[in-house]
Every structure is written in C-alpha cells, then in structure tokens.
Amino acid sequence: MEAGRVGRIKLGSQGLEVSAQGLGCMSMSGVYGLPKPEEDMIALIHHALNSGVTFLDTSDVYGPFTNEILLGKALEGGVRERVELATKFGFCSVDGKREIRGDPAYVRAACEASLTRLHMDCIDLYYQHRIDTRLPIEVTIGELKKLVEEGKIKHIGLSEASASTIRRAHAVHPITAVQLEWSLWSRDVEQEIIPTCRELGIGIVAYSPLARGFFSSGLKSIENLSHDDFRKLLPRYQPENMEHNKTIFESVNEMAKRKGCTPSQLALAWVHHQGNDVCPIPGTTKIENFNQNIGALSVKLTPGEMAELESFASEDIVKGDRSAHDIPTWKNSETPPLSSWKAA
Fold it and tell me: Which residues belong to any copy of the NADP-dependent oxidoreductase domain (predicted)?
C-alpha cells in the first residue's frame, strides 16, 4: 500500500487534535539495541512531520533522558509549532533502586526537567508513565492540574492504569488520553479499560501496535536481536513460545498477500479499525519502515476480515505474557503482573 499524507483526529474530548497515527520515539535512543545516529533520527522526525505525522511520543526514561534531548534538537527552528508532543514521568532510580513516583514534588521536578531537555515552555500531553500505588491517584493528578493551570502542560494522560484509577483521576481533572499496549495479540484492555475510556470521553493511544516488531517480520525480528535488546526479556519472545507464536505471523502474512499489503500494515490497520478515538504510535528508526506504517491507513478491512484476523491471535493461541515487569523490578507500580492481566 502506498503511503499518503496522514489525516487528523480528535484525541479525547478535551480539545487535543493529533495526526491519525503517531510516532513512538523510544527505539531511537536504545532499548531495542544501541541508540541510533542523532542526525539520522532527526531526519526521520522531519520526514514524519512532512508526511503529516505530528504526534510524537517520548518519555524521560527513554535513554534515560537522551530521547527528550533528541526531540528538543529535532524541533528547533520553528518546528515545535507543527507538533503535538507527548512525554511521560514516573520511572526513577534512587540509590540504585528502581521505583515509581507520583508525589507532587517529583511530578513538578520531572516536568521542569523535561521542559528543559525539550527546550519547550509547555508540553502538549503529559502522561504518568506508571501509577504510584503508594499514594492516592488524586494526589498526583492534583499536582498535574496545577501544572495545567500554570501553562506548563496542556493535557493530562495516564499510561497502563486500571479502569478504577482512570475514573478517580478523571474526577479530579479531565484525562485527555490513556496510553496502553493494544495490538492483534495484546487485547486484555478491551475488557474494562477501553469501555471506561469511551464512557468518559478519553482518547486511546495504542503503543506497540505491531507487537514490538513481531508483525513486521515474525521470527526474523527475534533471530536478529542484539544482546542488549529489551525484547529478549519478554516471555512471548522466548524460543519455546516463539516457535509456537510464529504460526500467528504466518497466518497474518498469508492474509496480507491476499490484501496486497504487508503483514505490518495489516496488523496496524486492525488497530486503526478499532475506532476514530484510537491513535496507534508505532515506533521505527527507518524512513522506509515509517512509510510502510503510514500506508496502513489505506488498508480497508471488512467486519469479516477483522474477525478472521482476530481468530489468528485469540487469547488461547498466543503463548507467553506480553510483559516482564519483574525484569527489572519496579516497586510500587500499578502494572501488569506476569499472569493474565486486568490492570490492578
């Protein structure tokens, strides 16, 4: 499928408009192997903007910090005005110990630090990356509300939060978007979280919509991973599970051939067909792959084709949990356990 210029959607009911597909920037600064050359990533970001993808997603923990610095450089010279920039806070390391923080002092300090790294006066969408279970969510949102009032952030978001946490947070200040893992083989969120977001008018941002590269090249994406690639820690990527899961990719690939598109475009199109309140943010470090991803917007799926796709990756077919949050261990976090997940 050829890629055209990307359209726009309203993300949530709080006035934020973004490109219909975003760009996840995490892998530009490591996590899936070594960081990529800065000049190449800046060129990719500028290419994305020129293609109509203006919704950029980062976090202070990517790098850590270096991904925000990269975005700050990429958005110099008047480029900032063309972008809806989302970043996150919450992961921190204290005396070598990893923990999640959502206390007011930390929220404010993290926001100020991100603004400095990004060379910005205001963040368009500021997420709590993970929920700090040591204190009421109302306390964290109360401080974020102050940052909105002070003009340092425009919109508040949550990432990997439970339905009850989303409700409580939204009661303090309207939540614009919830970020969650949603793909053809990660569908736990459809039970409670997606309906809650829709009831409250909260936009949905789907990260890892290509299953961290699995729907791009199947087993090849695993066999070529570098030793420092985070995906090597994930249960679904372990050899004993991947040998089974490769049949999912093979089925998707076969259907993609019939549709005249790539398997990644087909998997991404499935996410787009979930509704106009959903914005997937596939990440990439290559312009060629970026162009392929936005080509997914041109893939049309019938209800029958949607059902066929879902049959390939039903819950009883996929082997291995989607996350490995005990590697590394993050204390006091409202995150998915390694068993079946409904968000604590």
Answer: 22-312
